[in-house]
Amino acid sequence: MSIEFCHQAVMLAEVTEVLRDLPSGVVVDATLGGGAHSEALLNANENLQIIGFDRDQDALNAARKRLSHHGERFIGVHQEFQHITEVLASFGHQGAAGCLFDLGVSSFQLDNPQRGFSFRHNGPLDMRMDPSMQLTAADVVNNYDRAVLKDLLWRNAGEKNAQRISAAIIAARPIATTQELAETISDALPAAVKRRKGHPARRTFQAIRIEVNQELSHLESAVKQALSLLVPQGRCAVLAYHSGEDRIIKRCFREAANAPTPKRYALPPDPQKTATVRLLWSGARKPDAAEIVRNPRCTAARMRAVEKLETDT
Predict the structure, then answer these.
(1) Structure confidence at residue 265 (pLDDT)
(2) Alpha-carbon span 240 to 226, nearest angstrom
(3) What pLDDT does 199 receive?
(4) CATH T-level fold of 109-213
(5) Which residues, given as ranges, of the chain have pLDDT below 70?
(6) Going by CATH, does the domain composed of 12-104+216-308 fall within 3.40.50.150?
(7) What is the secondary structure of the chain as a DSSP string?
(8) CB atoms within 10 A of CB 208
(9) What pTM, to 2 d.p., does this model score?
(10) What is d(CA 56, CA 262) in angstroms, rounded to the nearest whole number?
(11) For position 3, what pLDDT does the model report?
């Protein structure tokens, strides 16, 4: 079954505002998706070229079609974002005017039952962003031992009921579909937990998806590469959707800016270290109320951005 790729770009106006007035050159869209952010940037600044990365071939095909009228100003690459430096070098670029990361999962992936991402649609336990990858959600659900399951539920999603859920998954094996998994999780939880806002399986599905796609393992490396590649006055913007991602981004940005953290016992800036970027604002920006009404899935989005300084030692 063919399903048209459709995804609502999150904080599109805010991203465009931050990245529109960049130095002439190449912008890396590290998580291309359907190409809406890239399209807005290409329309806003005729002096930019975009190299877009995505490991989902369907997303890449949709973005290439959408942006084809921009000709050579857009290049789509079927690649993971931890290879930013080598891919740019292969196209003759040693630096970048900007970089965008829109992390997480697209509406197309969530709404296509055959991709197995959603607890709301019944489908196979897959969750692979790149279907050529070997590890699937079914492998995690049916083969990981209880201790490992419990750990990844807490580490990847902060699931407070990780012990209950991991035990229930072990007892219910084999689990073949997203609906079976969602019901197993729901049945394992106390009534009081299920009455809380949001689907009781949301965090578990998130944790398994992150494990399948190794979403956190390469993020720090990719962001640090992006910051290193930025030319003076170049900018990097990141949209994160859960605390694990956001912690990594916050740490990378603050370290590069040599900025003190607001935590009570944090170390002050290192006088021996030279900042390479400046934070464009303190903390994270969030979608406004009107966007959340239009697209409830954007509620968790947190946007951070930095600008490269003239001195880079």
Answers:
(1) 46
(2) 16
(3) 87
(4) DNA polymerase; domain 1 (1.10.150)
(5) 1-7, 261-270, 272, 311-313
(6) yes
(7) -------PPTTHHHHHHHHTTPPSEEEEETT-TTSHHHHHHHHH-TTEEEEEEES-HHHHHHHHHHTGGGGGGEEEEES-GGGHHHHHHHTT-S-EEEEEEE-S--HHHHH-GGG---SSS--BS---SSTT-S--HHHHHHHS-HHHHHHHHHHHH--TTHHHHHHHHHHH-S--BHHHHHHHHHHHS-HHHHTSSS-TTHHHHHHHHHHHHTTTTTHHHHHHHHHHHEEEEEEEEEEE-SHHHHHHHHHHHHHHHTPPPSSTTPPPP-TTS---EEESSSS-B---HHHHHH-GGGTT-EEEEEEE-S---
(8) 29
(9) 0.89
(10) 37
(11) 47
Residue-level pLDDT at 192: 83
- Please answer whether residues 120 and 199 qualify as being in contact, where contact means their C-beta atoms are separated by less than 8 angstroms: yes
Residues written for the chain:
313
- Torsion sign across C-alpha atoms 249, 253, 258, 262: negative
State both tokens at 22: 């960049």
Residues 100, 15: contact at Cβ < 8 Å?
A: yes
Q: Where are the domains of the chain?
A: 12-104+216-308, 109-213
52-94 per-position pLDDT tens digit: 999 999 999 999 999 999 999 999 999 999 999 999 999 999 9
Structure confidence at residue 69 (pLDDT): 97
